[in-house]
Amino acid sequence: MLPYLGHACGNPSSFHSVGKEAKDALDNARERMAKVLHVRADEILFTSGGTESDNLAVLGFCRANAGTGKHLVVAAFEHHAVLEAAMHLEKKEGFEVAYLVPDHDGLITTDQVMSAIRPDTILISVMYANNEIGTIQPIGEIGNAIQKYRAAEKKAFPVFHTDACQATGFLDLDVEKLHVDLMTLNGGKMYGPKGIGALYVRRGIKLQPLQFGGSQERGLRPGTENVAGIIGMAKALELVQENRVRESERLTALRDRLIEGIRQRVPKVRLNGHATKRLPNNVNVSFVDIEGEALILYLDAAGIYASTGSACTSTTLDPSHVILSLGLPYEVAHGSIRFSLGHATRAQDVEYVLDVLPPLVEKLRAISPVRVDPKYYV
């Protein structure tokens, strides 16, 4: 990224040589990302991040195709960038939304998705892997079923979108295997720079822009491109996809050790999300009878950085909508903690957490007025 933060800082829309250098670098990054995803370069749009890409996929697509139908299907555990966009369409623009409720492990089935389709359904959105509980959805199977439905009905709808932000470092992003029409990516979720994202848009898909004022990104995302960010995201995508199998194996072992250790050393805990169909770096557990926010502060003081839900909603005290979608009560949701493992995580880090965590939970439970029904953790 460094040259494009310094001497090669031209506007890629300019005709002079410095601008052309930036434009060539931007085009090269787009082609490299397309190669990883097995798509055409002109099917990748660059945005400011995953939120904007999700918004463009949901709002941009539905508004552009409202004349065909005004019904969409989304999973109840989607990121707020998808959920709130769908809710806006529902409340303000006359759309109807079917919210798919997962099972107690956070899984959506292909039959659920297909059963929700109506003649006027134009969009289906199911995230590849959940950002809070890590559960991996059968996106390829769902996408294949939707394609067969369209072929049988001789229709171009519904179109299938997946938010793949959290999956980028660990799962196969081959669009041909996933059978998706729209896919959201986020640079910050793949060790790339923050403030940069991308949206794969299958050729022929019609979108309405959310912003106006320029012809960049085929007029669908006007504004001078973040060249350094785009180049950083392209390189990060190549690296994480190249190393994903080896890194997934390493982190899965650490993840399972952390889960096993917590269950052995801390009573009254619940693992949220599927035990095995989950991201290698995700451990989400509910420590019953305590408030998760208090535990986060104690862990932070010990140099352990965890979260109670999505970082995008960390300023609210509302319980996680993802945990509630599993059919769990507010008290369990309030005690949920997410540990995210990563490139720098080592076995000694996991053991440190297992040493520090139990006495903190015990201390908080001793002063907590919350008492949860044992059926939620036994």
Quick take:
It contains eleven helices and ten strands. The chain is an alpha/beta fold. The strands form two sheets. Strands 1-7-6-5-4-2-3 form a seven-stranded mixed beta sheet, with helices on both faces.
What oligomeric state best describes the polypeptide chains here?
Answer: single chain
The CATH architecture designation of the largest domain is 3-Layer(aba) Sandwich
What is the tally of beta strands? 10
- The radius of gyration over CA amounts to 22 Å
* Order of helix and strand elements from N to C terminus: HEHEHEHEHEHEEHEEHHHEH
Q: Tell me the count of domains.
A: 2
**In which order are the strands of the major sheet placed?**
1-7-6-5-4-2-3
By CATH, the topology of the largest domain is: Aspartate Aminotransferase, domain 2
Residues in helices, as a percent range: 40-55%
Please count the helical segments.
Answer: 11
Largest sheet: 7 strands, mixed
End-to-end separation in angstroms reads: 50 Å
Strand content: 5-15%
The top level CATH class name of the largest domain: Alpha Beta
The low-confidence parts are none
Shape: globular
**Computed structural class:** alpha/beta
CATH superfamily of the largest domain: Type I PLP-dependent aspartate aminotransferase-like (Major domain)
Mean pLDDT: 94
What would you note in describing this structure?
The structure is a single chain. With 378 residues, the protein is α/β, with parallel strands linked by helices. It has two domains: 2-239, 3-Layer(aba) Sandwich (Aspartate Aminotransferase, domain 2); 245-366, Aspartate Aminotransferase, domain 1, CATH 3.90.1150. Helices cover 41% and strands 13% of the residues. It contains eleven helices and ten strands. The chain has helices at 17-37, 50-64, 80-92, 110-116, 139-153, 175-178, 227-265, 292-301, 321-325, 330-334, 347-367; strands at 44-47, 71-75, 96-100, 121-125, 159-163, 182-186, 197-201, 269-271, 282-287, 336-340. The strands form two sheets. It has a seven-stranded mixed β-sheet, sandwiched between helices. The chain has a three-stranded antiparallel β-sheet with strand order 8-9-10. Helix 1 (17-37) runs parallel beside helix 7 (227-265) and helix 2 packs parallel to helix 3. The longest helix is centred in the middle third of the chain and has 39 residues, at 227-265. The termini are far apart.
